[in-house]
Amino acid sequence: MTHILPTTRHELGLLHRARPAMAGLLLAGIAAQGSPLGGSPVRKVPGIGWVTADPVVARTVLRDHRSFTILGEGGVGNLWAQILGDWVLDLFDGAGHHDLRTRTRELFTEAVSRDLVSAAWDDRIAVAGEVLRSGGTLDVARLSRILVGRMVICLLGIPRPAGHGGSWPDDEGAARIFETGERLASVALGTAGSTILTPAQVATAQGIVAELNAGIPDGWRDAPPDTLLGRCRELGLGLTETSGLASLLMVAGTETAASAMGRITALLIDTGEQHRMLAAIRAGAAPGAAAPIPVRDGDDGRAAGLLNPGEADPVENVVREGLRVTSPASVIGRGVAADVEVGGAQLRAGERIMLLVWSANATAGPFRADRQYVRESRQLWFGAGRHLCLGAALARAEIGTLLRMLWSEDRPLRVVRRRAARGVLIPAWSELLVTRA
Ligand code: HEM
């Protein structure tokens, strides 16, 4: 009865191993979506609060900035204020946030993102490609962590550790930076029921932030304008804002990107869709494929990126479809700021709501390399409204670059061995060994 599963057995196993309770909630979300009994798409779950798996309701919540807040109990802004200080509150919402997003609009455009990936990855990607070409085995999970770690080192200008010889960043250094980001994110692990941190959690998180941000003052002062820190300075961001933004990038963009890279690789192999992708690449751009159309998803009318119905580039299409099916940020939380009715439910100020993004996106069907853009979910895996992922173009460039390397020989791959990470916030493969089939 595999056809009734929303995704592959391997993906379901991976979600379960990450957090069994969360996996149960995500699957229940899909079941509720398809329930013949109907009822409100917004339900109250004891110990969690309001929950929805409806993509349209989820987007309504994310775009309703008057009734819902990222700052209150239940939102990540609440976590960050406890770690970084109350100044974060202005940076996360309201006028300060609007100003920050306006200034940072050009930080991760499609073109800048491609250049960033190329600068941080090209030599390491070439080495990995050579391993596959020579018939060797590649651990795509570890490689993803190393690549993302390298990106963080480049973006934040993390200096070579004292006494470190040889080239920088090396694999060990990059993997260590990734793990540091993971430790920071894991502070949020216990917050499904509440976003109030204990003093010990706050102290741990502050120590990690200090470690990661050690290179920022120098970088912000001296880095050339073609680096992220240099660009922040040129855009008029102060040192405090730049440091806060850096912490955000670190937490928002490391585990999510690495999770997507490993999981989309496995999906392509497990579903056999790699053959469809390779055939499409061989055939060139699909005839009649629609040109990319810019979409506006932010409430200030800014272009939020390109959403391509029937993406002309087969790999780009796989990136979008893979993000839909994996949705690494499985849930998004918000606090209720004012009494409001959504989806027929009455929500009261002070309550919280969890948007089951994974379930909302998965409802459209299983992974298909050539699936067209799904209108209901749009790009909900990157959120919506004014907090729509700032690094979306960078994430897509990262995933696309990895996939192009893996399948550059026009040959299918097979999984030799795999292991899912246990007890993590963002479900991921901790090991994914692949080789030519
Ligand atoms: C596949 C990878 C990624 C996924 C699935 C993802 C997903 C998301 C989602 C769902 C949000 C909205 C959270 C909310 O509304 O509460 C978000 C926000 C954000 N993301 Fe990403 N993200 C990814 C990669 C990245 C990368 C690579 C970066 C930067 C280097 C990044 C930077 C950010 C930032 C700064 C925000 C906060 C934006 C704001 O509050 O205005 N993300 N991301």
TrEMBL record:
Protein keywords: Heme, Iron, Metal-binding, Monooxygenase, Oxidoreductase
UniProt KW Membrane keyword: no
PROSITE patterns according to UniProt: CYTOCHROME_P450
InterPro entries: Cyt_P450, Cyt_P450_B, Cyt_P450_CS, Cyt_P450_sf
Organism superkingdom: Bacteria
Entry-linked Pfam families: p450 (PF00067)
Signal peptide boundaries: none
Family: Belongs to the cytochrome P450 family.
Name the record gives this protein: Cytochrome P450
